[in-house]
Amino acid sequence: MKKETSISKASATKGYLTGKEIRAIAKANKREINRLEKYKNRRAKLSEFTSEMKNDGNILEIEDLHTYFFTEQGVVKAVNGVSFDVPKNATVGIVGESGCGKSVTSMSVMRLIQGPQGQIYSGSIRFSGAGDNEVYDIAKMPVHEIHRIRGKQIAMIFQEPMTSLNPVFTIGQQLDEVSFIHFPDVTEDDARAKSMEMLNLVGIAMPERVYKAFPHELSGGMRQRVMIAMALVGNPRLIIADEPTTALDVTIQAQILDLLRELKDKIDGSILLITHDLGIIAEMADYVVVMYAGRVIEKGTVEEIFHNPMHPYTIGLQRSKPTLDSDSDTLFNIPGNVPNPINMPDHCYFKERCDRCTAKCSGDYPDMIQVSPTHFVACHLWGKEEQNG
Strand 376-377 to strand 369-370: parallel, antiparallel, or no bridges (unpaired)? Predict the structure, then answer.
């Protein structure tokens, strides 16, 4: 891995890869993929993928997670050392521009990273299971064991319901399938009753009609409600909502967000909400995680992030949001581009785009500094010396 990375960085200055470098990358990739695939498909005892929560008040703890994609040009470090917690009965929002690693983080939790090129390389994803009171380390679970939690204890609402729902099966068939998979002893009548209950729960007025309908016969808002109902069939403790209001009009967005807020209380669970919209985060989230180029650069309560943002990137994101009291007739944008994920620099990834850059920013990547019991920031502007000063 180190040799392959050095090859990629050396070639970045030339702008191209030689045949020798391409072969070296392919050889290194094959070696790592084979190792990770073997580990992923191993037969393991329960003790090998169980763990303990560092804080019993959390339902999910992600610690130093690395998720890589092995490509012909090199290793894309889509998630590069991400750490944050999801407390019980709370909503945690993840924000950041496109390509920062939000969705890859959520797909890592669900173990839906497309292999063999995509792999969870290292780190821990500790989840507090229900019923058996086990704490599973999802990153260490073999593939054949993931059924213990995926779709049942952790459910996901995907970004685009039209591509997530199967067009050749009715809504009822797809809802019932969840019950058949996760509750082997369930009867057809029980599965139908559970599906109808979930359709009622998400506020669908005519559940019998929707149950018999195909996805193309429903509107975007109705399909999104069906996706939420499908996520709830297994009685999950954690719902991951990846851009749940994308491509919906404002009124339907408000209804979906109200529905998610009500459901969190009804299921007595937590929500991991991924979105670009800071307005949605301000309205829905209890805690906020700000990501940039595969790393967490700031995290804290929603009040801390919105009323006391400390990282220049977080400040830039908030300035990018249009407001009615703005004196300017143009929208603010953060200049520059995200660095190449294959050839990430050793210094702060935001350095080239930052208007508050100092000499320290050319040094090592900044450590995560704790500025309050719940507020953390990775920026040289808030190092230990500045805190003491």
Answer: antiparallel
Structure tokens, 274: 């991924």
Cβ distance 126 to 64 under 8 Å?
no
Tokens at residue 45, please?
């005892």
User: What does 34-61 look like in DSSP terms, one character per residue?
Assistant: HHHHHHHT----GGGSB---SSTTEEEE
- Span between the terminal Cα atoms of the chain, in Å: 41
Q: CA of 155: how far to CAs of 45, 112, 130, 145, 348, in Å?
A: 25, 12, 14, 16, 34
* Residue 151 DSSP code: T
Q: Other CB atoms closer than 10 Å to residue 81's CB: what's the count?
A: 16
Query: Which pTM does this prediction carry?
Result: 0.88
Distance CA 187, CA 166 (A): 22
pLDDT confidence of residue 314: 93
Q: DSSP letter at 150?
A: B
CA distances from 102 to 85, 199, 275, 370 (A): 14, 29, 8, 22
Interstrand relation of 295-301 and 287-292 (parallel, antiparallel or unpaired): antiparallel
Contact 192, 176 (CB under 8 A): yes
pLDDT at 174 over 90: yes
Per-residue pLDDT of 22-79, as tens digits, reads 899 999 999 999 999 999 999 989 889 999 999 999 999 999 999 999 998 899 999 9
